[in-house]
Amino acid sequence: MQFSEHWLRTYANPALDSAALSHLLTMAGLEVEDTQALAPDFSHVVVGQIVSADKHPDADRLQLCKVDTGAAAPLQIVCGASNARVGIKVPCALVGAALPGFNIKQAKVRGIESFGMLCSAKELGLAEESSGLLELSADAPVGQDIRDWLDLNDQLLTLKLTPNRSDCLSLLGIARDVAALTGTVLNLPAITAVAVTSDAQRKVLVDASTACPRYTGRVITGVDARAQTPDWMVRRLERSGLRSISVIVDITNYVLLELGQPLHAFDAAGLDGDIRVRFAQAGERLDLLNQQSVNLDTDMLVIADSQGPLALAGIMGGNASAVSDDTQSIFLESAYFEPAAIVGKARRLNFSTDSSYRFERGVDFANTRNALEHASALILQICGGQAGPVTEVLNTLPARAPVTLRHARMESVLGITLVPAAVTRMFAQLGFEHAVRGDDYLVTPPSYRFDIRIEEDLIEEVARLHGYDQIPATPPQAALNMLPAAESSLPAAALKACLTASGYQEIVSYSFVDLSWERDLLGNATPVALKNPIASNLSVMRSGLWGGLLDTLSYNLNRKQDRVRLFEVGAVYAAKDGGYAEHTRISGLAYGDASPEQWAEPARLVDFYDIKADVERLTGGMARYEPASHPALHPGQSAQVWLHGRMIGWLGKLHPKWQQQYDLPSSPLLFELDLGPLQQRAVAAYREVAKFPPVRRDLAVLVDEVVPLQALMDTLKQAQISHVVDLQLFDLYRGKGIPEGKKSLALSVFMQDTQKTLVDAEADAAMAKLLELLASQHGAVLR
């Protein structure tokens, strides 16, 4: 919501400068997002009138002008503007004037003395470009400072309003708050019913009485639609971000900004029969003012006549009944539409309007007729004409239920002490009807405050008027007790620290993602869909974290970061029994060189075993890996990760087709694991440290190429052969001397006894049992 500070001060003018006023509004919950001066600083520029304009004797494109600036004698000024002519009034910079970027001095132009400069809008810093002098209206007083005449000392304020404060989508609403916050007198615009001088009237029928509880309208005949919009109105519209269109449209927009009530003017010549407020019928179409032709849904409220829809109620009018320069009679509409009947309809049609923005949030239903009268008066004043009687259809308006505020509850929430008289004074400043019932207040919110519904809303109002910055920040006081930390549970922060120590950086991405990520990367055909996505590419909830990691990788690669390590801990969602299930996972991505560039180690790309080592650190070396296929991963370089007897995630290299689709120079390595199992840790238990030396024996066997090492290690460890304390692979060999389809695996076997030194016979027996197990269960042969 952008508005002119000077316009606001015509209704409430506190003794505060612009900066203090902005701070006051922000601290009251009406955040001033931006403040900018209407015009840059310049001085000694006045209204001047050209009284003569003769050709420069030595330059074809220059004129020698005599300019009346209110001084004793006209000034001689050389001017090259094409629109410089006798009689017009323009800004005149006097000698000594300081303009944006340069100063004005007495000078000679082609041998002729020039005592100032006639200015364009660009030279005053009011426009980026201009084609000639800035022409002023005929009533501009000669000699007056141009900043005062054009009100250029104004400030433009932009509020970032929260959806609940629809009452502040108008100058009147903002002024109410300023007056309440500062105790300033509120000067409401004087609105009186215009004199009815015509019997022209049009019947109104409201079929959708719940969606439209109040509808008012009147016919105004004999209007001059070609009349000029007054400069003061054009300035206020432009400073609120609206351009001047035509006088009748400008007036409805002006009332919208001033009072917050959207209005619409129909060309009476384009109407046939009665005005009817109803829901659209199946198959109806409407050509809108924005040149868009739309198919109307049956839940869309329309204003219609006997021929069909004329306008989308509360959103936009139609072309067929639009006001033009040839319009002579209008039907002026002012109505209250229930927010539920308007919300979402404009977005469904891929546009938004100032009217729908307000009706969706709620407008003042008690101000509907006042706005009609105010707009009627402005039309009669500017365009002439005769006003007919007001037609009004009134049904059940929203009830304003009283809200009870407990004084003790208010002080408990705010943490301050307030005397009851101060609280009632605040409610009076806000215009809230209220009564005191013992220690409680019974407050009836006004028609323009849709956000006041529960006790907490009133507490917030008290806090706003008291001043958030006046509420002391009292540190909480509480007894601190050491909480038990279970040894069997590892905090997520420890897992994050593990990855951070390995060179990873944490990211946080959206939980809602593109449908294609779910379908392609995760093979999820039934993701949890959002009912109201914020964007078309964020329409479903994620069931995995890889999409966000890959998107962040692309972002970094586009910025010349060619070695990337990322991880994320976040929730994932899956459809379940008509609802969804939520789980927390930890996921990582590695891309680029295995190590930072250095002199002591040759460069190589990160591979499967590098990222597997990172997963090993997360699992404490307790995980098992099984080859498996995943839609996102390379079929020959992917594996399931198992921990504590359950599959907890995946590990592997991105599939080449997704590498190509994401336009990546090479494929990154990815992992994703359930967080819960990683946090489970066995409680440390005492184990006697052997005082006797260990015995190492090496065991080399031939097995089929397809037999995984993990299967051999599981077999040997599960057997729990006496004295064997550790097994490690130290060699893998294929080649000369090894039959085709076979591989040689060499294991280091460590044996130890805590009570005595092992003898050869005991070690030989353990080795024989190991070999026997490998031969019987995996067909291994001693090499």
Question: Could you explain how this protein is built, in words?
Answer:
It is a single chain. By secondary structure, the protein is α+β, with helices and mostly antiparallel strands. The protein folds into 6 domains: 66 residues, Phenylalanyl-tRNA Synthetase, Chain B, domain 1 (2-Layer Sandwich), CATH 3.30.56; 107 residues, OB fold (Dihydrolipoamide Acetyltransferase, E2P) (Beta Barrel); 191 residues, 3-Layer(bba) Sandwich (Phenylalanyl-tRNA Synthetase, Chain B, domain 3), CATH 3.50.40; 65 residues, Phenylalanyl-tRNA Synthetase, Chain B, domain 1, CATH 3.30.56; 188 residues, Bira Bifunctional Protein, Domain 2 (BirA Bifunctional Protein, domain 2, 2-Layer Sandwich), CATH 3.30.930; 88 residues, Alpha-Beta Plaits. It contains 21 helices and 39 strands. The strands form 10 sheets. The chain has a 7-stranded mixed beta sheet, sandwiched between helices. Strand 33 and strand 34 form a beta hairpin. Helix 4 runs antiparallel to helix 12 and helix 6 packs antiparallel against helix 10. The chain is elongated, with a radius of gyration of 40 Å. The mean pLDDT is 92.
